[in-house]
Specification:
With 230 residues, the chain is mainly alpha-helical. The protein is built from 13 helices and no strands. The chain has a domain at 1-69 and 86-99: Alpha Horseshoe (Serine Threonine Protein Phosphatase 5, Tetratricopeptide repeat). α5 (77-84) runs antiparallel to α6 (87-95) and α7 runs parallel beside α9 (143-150).
Length: 230
């Protein structure tokens, strides 16, 4: 491996492990490293964001590196940071103009990852910055689908109460709504909250199944009561 290749490999490791001072010195000697990519097309910014090193992220951005480079899976630094729960890095990237609605090759976005992994502050930050609350992956699943199916009740509450233009009954490619998913996974509190907030019980998926077809008898009775009260 050439010296340039060795320096680049070292730099990626330093970025991920947050060796800020050493990496700054290396960049001062060879600023071209700031735009180098590894075998997965990841830049130093990708690795610093994934590692959660906010000081290093800020330094790299001060060197005018692109804020939204994509790796071979279409992951941007913001998507990686959101997936890993790196709140400070997410804040910096958004402040510096990162595309909040970027998707990777599977259609997954920063909000979808954060909703799925229960990163409440990151979801809130994204919602404050005009993220598309109904953004869907290639299977049609939205952040609400993910949060409801995972049982992330606080994220479900956040999406229902603070998200603008939420389509509570949006269907995925199989015709399932978030309520279908909550019922299928026996997420009782999430299902009840969805119905309280207006989710429809009669919607059929592509197999002509309603949420009731996924419910236990006890949950079905509770949902009927809530629906009748509404």
């Amino acid at each position: 491996m050439s010296k340039a290749g060795t320096d680049a490999k070292k730099a990626f490791d330093m970025a991920y492990h947050g060796q800020v001072s050493t990496l700054k010195a290396l960049l001062a000697q060879n600023e071209n490293l700031k735009l180098q990519v590894d075998e997965n097309e990841r830049t130093l910014l990708h690795w610093a964001a994934l590692g959660g090193h906010d000081e290093l992220v800020s330094h790299l951005l001060s060197l005018k590196v692109p804020v939204d480079p994509r790796d071979d899976m279409g992951m941007t630094p913001l998507i990686l940071a959101a997936s890993a729960g790196r709140e400070k890095v997410v804040n910096i990237l958004i402040r510096e103009g990162a595309a909040v609605n970027a998707k990777n090759n599977e259609g997954h976005s920063a909000l979808q990852y954060a909703a799925s992994k229960n990163w409440h502050p990151i979801c809130e930050k994204l919602l404050e910055n005009d993220v598309d609350i109904n953004i869907a992956d290639k299977y049609g699943a939205t952040p609400l689908h993910r949060a409801a199916s995972k049982g992330n009740i606080e994220i479900v509450k956040l999406l229902l109460t603070k998200g603008r233009n939420l389509n509570i009954d949006q269907q995925d490619r199989y015709g399932n709504t978030a309520l279908h998913m909550a019922c299928e996974e026996d997420r009782v509190e999430e299902a009840k909250l969805l119905v309280q907030m207006g989710a429809r019980l009669e919607i059929q998926n592509k197999k002509e199944e309603t949420p009731f077809d996924f419910c236990s008898r006890a949950l079905a009775n509770q949902l009927k009561e809530i629906s009748n009260e509404n």
